[in-house]
Amino acid sequence: MAALVLVPGFWLGAWAWEDVARELRSAGHEVHTVTLTGLAERAGEAGPGTGVQAHIADIVRVIEDNGLQDVVLVGHSGANVPVTGAAARIPGRIARLVFVDTAPLPSGMAVIDFNHPATQERWRKEVAEEGDGQWLPVPPFERTGDAHDLAGLTDEHLARLRERCTPQPFATATEGLDLPHGLPAVPSSLVACTFTPGQLRELAASGSPLFAPLAGMDLHHLPTGHWPMFSRPVELAMTLGGLADR
Where does the AB hydrolase-1 domain lie (predicted)? Predict the structure, then answer.
């Protein structure tokens, strides 16, 4: 049976996967949850140069130190870049990449580049004014913001996010991956939460190089907001477990 390595998105630590990991382990799966450098209990380990390569190294270290093979490597949201980089570095150990409400980015593209220009400007302003020039502050997680993004979250979920999230090393948002040979040649799946598979297929067929990788991906639909490990942990675990059982 494949081992699952779960990598959280921006502002999160391994704690974000607690409910999903519990479900997977109860079904007999081997699960490793990752806290990336500079986040959660590792907040004190980051420096000014902590970026994408440090997070790739974190993931590779978990896989190699635990002697894992046939890994189902799961990345949520902004973890799309480091899980792609880890798979490119050790492709022989990766059985499948799974992107949770995110997708691989083209070579050289950073997470910030994928966002609307207004969001990019807001992030840079927040980092300069509140993040000492190197930290992306935790969002307010208020329902007055993007209700679609927060769909399915209870008030208790929102309070938990506000309490436990930590600022994100900003270089991880501004650094892209150099992929001279293209995306890793491993099977890839996408669990779509804020988009439907039909919408993703339309993007894939649009001819834009940005969405070209979607055409070859195995698509799954888990309708909820952008944080399914909180809003629908049982269903997410079932989806990931099914992919691991292939």
Answer: 4-237
- Helix or strand or coil: residue 210? helix
Whole-angstrom Cα distance, residue 184 to residue 213? Answer: 11
Q: What are the structure tokens assigned to 37, written together?
A: 């450098």
- Which sign does the torsion angle of CA 112, 226, 198, 238 carry? positive
Sheet holding 188-192: strands in order across?
Answer: 30-33, 3-7, 71-76, 94-100, 188-192, 218-221
Task: Quickly count helices (H) and strands (E) in the chain.
Answer: 9, 8
Which three-class secondary structure state does DSSP give residue 166?
coil
Pairwise CA distance, residues 160 & 156, whole Å:
6
- Measured in whole angstroms, how far is the alpha carbon of residue 25 from the centre of its chain? 20
120-142 pLDDT, tens digit per residue, is 999 999 999 999 999 999 999 99
Model pTM? Answer: 0.97
- Evaluate whether 198 touches 223 at the Cβ level (below 8 Å): no
Looking at CATH, the fold of the domain delimited by 3-244 is given as: Rossmann fold (3.40.50)
| Assigned token pair, 103 | 């997708």
Instruction: List CB contacts of 122: < 8 A, sequence separation 6 or more.
Output: none
As a whole number of angstroms, the distance between CA 172 and CA 52 comes to 5
Q: pLDDT tens across 167-225, in order? A: 999 999 999 999 998 999 999 999 999 999 999 999 999 988 889 889 889 999 999 99
What letter does residue 46 receive in the DSSP assignment?
-
Q: HSE (CB half, 13 Å, CA atoms) of 49?
A: 2
